[in-house]
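fyi for ur records
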Amino acid sequence: MKFNHKILLLEDEIEAADMLADFLQMHDFEVLKAYNGNEALSIIKENPANVDLAVLDIMVPEINGIEVCTFIRNHPVMKDIPVIFLTAKDNETDEIYGLESGADDYIAKPASFNLILARVKSLLRRQPTSGTGWINFGGIYLDLQAKEAWAEKKRIDLTHTEFGILEMLIRQPNRVFTRQEILEDISGEDKFVFDRTVDVHIKNLRIKLGDHGSSIKTFRGTGYGMNR
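which gave:
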């Protein structure tokens, strides 16, 4: 089955989560289920460019739904996706607090699956139809449209060449690129580019990426590749 959108569902009641996920999948949505806040954050870190909307229960173990929403709103890739709180906290104060925390909608339990589906479709209709244009490796994110790079939540200032090398490595993380391959990719019409130029760019990338710089691995005698 081809799914139209991917939804993150955070719900600690396993039976309720499975039933809602099955219902959404019947309506052509792919659902990534998390039964606690830590599982939700793991899904976000692994699939940031592929999650189109989040449905979050607030009162869940480990990290609550409010904190997960805050994490999404501060995430370079996911900060603009719709977020729905689906929760048993149903008084007006809770709803106001949830919306002020960054949610786009607030649904009190119990709620019919049809109502949830209608709210999901309504929010997704407001989203741009084009792709996100993001790729990532671990905590490194590249916005291919804006040509911007991020390490976790910090924007990294890269040159055009540095961005190009990093994009090349991230697109094929299981491949080792020779210096010559990288040179051919970055040099264009410039015939006066030398092997050591690649080493300098890699060194600068590692410095700028900070703790994530170690993801770029040197394969001695061959070249460079990404390494988890």
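Residues 5-125 form a domain with the Rossmann fold fold (CATH 3.40.50.2300). thats all i got for now
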